[in-house]
């Protein structure tokens, strides 16, 4: 299937063929959901921790005699039942990451790209380049194009001048093709692919 390409100033820049295997799938919510969960789980720090009975700083002296009190048999104030005692089976630092096969991750990326194309939120850009690294100039061009929260994916490398101009724009993210991921694609209002990005993604996902 064909898609029209534009320049950064909004003028037409010909058209490009898009692969049906990558951009023409019927998006499946279950696949996209699993991919987003996998990404967010990998990004989670997992540094949560609590002090257990052996970690709290408290006296270990037996608080009262073992027998004859009519109460429970406690050894120290470190027990979880007491105030300032240790936490029973609290969270410990760990990784939340889980595995997904490489084949499934490729499938998820194809469905994310197809979802954007089907929703009419995919734009093909000729090249992501700008003459001067001026944030104001790029901001005006982005506003003129009507991109509210856009993700621009370039080829193997991002033009350095363009990246510097886009760095301070809150509503614009720029990634090289290798950084394309399901979570960032889905959370953007507009997905912008350069022609180089389309070629690289098709070579990567076929």
How are the strands ordered across the major sheet? 2-1-3-6-4-5
Can you tell me the CATH superfamily of the largest domain? Ribosomal protein L4/L1
**Low-pLDDT ranges:** none
Rg over CA atoms: 27 Å
Given the helix and strand composition, which structural class is it? alpha/beta
Helix-strand string:
EEHHHEHEHEHEH
Q: Which architecture of the largest domain would the CATH scheme give at its second level? A: 3-Layer(aba) Sandwich
Please give the count of helices: 7
Per DSSP E runs of 2 or more residues, the count of β-strands stands at 6
The CATH class of the largest domain turns out to be Alpha Beta
Give the overall form.
elongated
The main pleated sheet reads as: 6 strands, mixed
Strand content: 5-15%
Task: Indicate the mean pLDDT.
Answer: 94
């Amino acid at each position: 299937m064909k898609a029209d390409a534009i320049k950064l100033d909004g003028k037409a820049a010909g058209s490009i063929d898009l692969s049906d295997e990558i951009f023409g799938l019927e998006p499946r919510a279950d696949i996209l959901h699993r991919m987003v969960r996998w990404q967010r789980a990998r990004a989670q720090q997992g540094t949560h921790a609590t002090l257990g009975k052996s970690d709290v700083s408290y006296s270990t002296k037996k608080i009262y005699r073992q027998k004859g009190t009519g109460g429970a048999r406690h050894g120290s104030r470190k027990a979880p039942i007491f105030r300032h005692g240790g936490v029973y089976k609290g969270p410990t630092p760990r990784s939340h990451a889980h595995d997904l096969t490489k084949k499934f991750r490729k499938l998820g990326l194809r469905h994310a790209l197809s979802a954007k194309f089907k929703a009419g939120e995919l734009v093909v850009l000729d090249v992501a380049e700008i003459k001067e690294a001026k944030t104001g100039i790029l901001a005006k061009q982005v506003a003129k194009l009507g991109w509210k929260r856009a993700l621009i994916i370039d080829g193997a490398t991002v033009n350095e001048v363009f990246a510097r101009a886009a760095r301070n724009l809150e509503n614009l993210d720029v990634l090289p093709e290798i950084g394309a991921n399901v979570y960032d694609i889905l959370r953007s209002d507009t997905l912008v692919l350069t022609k180089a990005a389309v070629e690289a993604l098709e070579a990567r996902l076929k």
